[in-house]
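Saturday, quiet lab. Running sequence design on the structure tokens for the scaffold JK sent over.
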């Protein structure tokens, strides 16, 4: 199972720019990429609050959400990371199936996957169906319950790029692997105790290795 953002090209740059658009909407100075990655969280207001070192007011949270979403709405959909489609296809040929779980809006997620022409690579793709969510824990539980029966009791691994991915996986009693090239700084991911991979290929290799030991 994959977190969606980690498979996308230029995702870190896009998210940093969106966070900075949100900070500027508060008349604050933009942050450098390393600072954003050190404070990355599952919602834009939480990221900005971490960077600023203070809680946001209700009005500020609204401003941040509007600025963050408006930035993304102006950008064309991101392409996959180079080699990602080939990796997914190669894993499928070796009998490793895939699904996608994201906190991106569900309709936007499925449209993006369709536009990339890779629907057939995934058993299922689920995005956020509520206005906002701070954690994948509940959505992961639902996603797992809706996977096809053909998955059976085969081991499942969640490859993600946030600490929340690790926590959600453990709550669901599945194995997490962290991708260190995404939005969360690798040092923070290592602190979660999950194995951290520098590339998607390495993350996939760690996931496959785990499935062969259980």
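Result came back. Writing it out in full:
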């Amino acid at each position: 199972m994959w977190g969606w953002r980690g498979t996308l090209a230029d995702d870190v740059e896009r998210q940093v720019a969106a966070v900075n658009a949100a900070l500027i909407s508060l008349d604050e100075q933009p942050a450098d990429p390393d600072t954003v990655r050190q404070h990355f969280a599952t919602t834009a207001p939480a990221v900005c609050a971490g960077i600023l070192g203070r809680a946001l007011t209700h009005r500020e949270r609204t401003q941040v959400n509007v600025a963050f979403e408006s930035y993304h709405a102006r950008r064309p959909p991101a392409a996959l990371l180079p080699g990602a489609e080939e990796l997914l296809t190669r894993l499928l040929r070796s009998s490793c199936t895939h699904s996608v779980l994201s906190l991106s809006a569900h309709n936007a997620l499925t449209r993006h996957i369709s536009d990339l022409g890779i629907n057939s690579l995934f058993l299922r793709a689920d995005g956020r169906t509520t206005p906002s969510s701070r954690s994948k824990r509940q959505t992961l539980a639902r996603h797992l319950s809706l996977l096809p029966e053909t998955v059976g009791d085969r081991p499942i691994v969640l490859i993600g790029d946030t600490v929340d991915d690790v926590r959600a996986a453990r709550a669901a009693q599945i194995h997490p692997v962290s991708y260190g090239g995404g939005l969360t700084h690798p040092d923070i991911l290592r602190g979660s105790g999950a194995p951290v991979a520098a590339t998607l290929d390495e993350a996939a290799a760690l996931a496959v290795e785990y499935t062969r030991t259980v």
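Notes for JK: The two ends are 17 Å apart (CA to CA). The longest helix spans residues 58-74. Ask whether to fix the surface positions before the next round.
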